[in-house]
């Protein structure tokens, strides 16, 4: 609790020192949901527009996706992608060994296990997100589906996924802060402070956290204080508009097409 008070005071100092032309906004995604029912429900029960990103083919992915949607949360597919160091991806993982047909079918199969998804962000993917061919195949799918967005988790500074999404007219936004690279209250508090500071400086910011009890307990207390911090929590789909504005992009509309009806 003392650490929370410390970060709250630090954030309030930022609010008073940084003047913004418009009220800044933030987005928060909780990743890696689907493996544990209890912590998944804790994430869904967080106050406000916290997005829930679920790993495909996990024991509770489909159930929690439906519960999240029923609770009014944005549902996302947390899509595993190949890494530079060969980390195990688990079911639904995308690799450079796949043909285009196999690659696209894997994405569609993963989406079947996360119904109600309106966006995708990468799980790991330090290798795959650097390659325009494989990212282009993914963006082809999203570009066909009106309103579907992509979040670049930025697991690699060399990722081109977000830029390619924008080039292909897919609503997109980059991750700016990881809340819990270390699972401690002190780390989460400082990361949250960075999130608020970035929002006041740039007008918007996006954080990704995970269903650790430390993270979830902190957010349960911190989110209701955002009003006094001068920041609004908004859906990720809304946050993509701020990214497009910052990048000077004109939104591109595509005819609506159901993903499940366009399988290879």
Architecture blueprint of SSEs:
Layout: H1 2-17, E1 25-33, H2 37-44, E2 50-54, H3 61-70, E3 75-81, H4 100-113, E4 117-124, H5 132-143, E5 149-152, H6 161-167, E6 172-174, E7 177-178, H7 185-202, E8 204-209, H8 213-222, E9 232-233, H9 236-247
Parallel strand pairs: 1-2, 1-8, 1-9, 2-3, 3-4, 4-5, 5-6, 7-8
Helix pairs in contact: 1-7, 4-5
Helix fraction, binned, reads 40-55%
CATH class descriptor: Alpha Beta
For this structure, what is the CATH homologous superfamily? Glycoside hydrolase/deacetylase
Estimated structural class? alpha/beta
Question: What is the rounded Rg?
Answer: 18 Å
Number of DSSP E strands: 9
Shape: globular
- Main sheet? 9 strands, parallel
Account of the 3D structure:
- With 264 residues, the chain is of the alpha/beta class.
- α4 (100-113) links the parallel β3 and β4 (117-124).
- α1 (2-17) packs parallel to α7 and α4 packs across α5 (132-143).
- It has helices spanning 2-17, 37-44, 61-70, 100-113, 132-143, 161-167, 185-202, 213-222, 236-247; strands spanning 25-33, 50-54, 75-81, 117-124, 149-152, 172-174, 177-178, 204-209, 232-233.
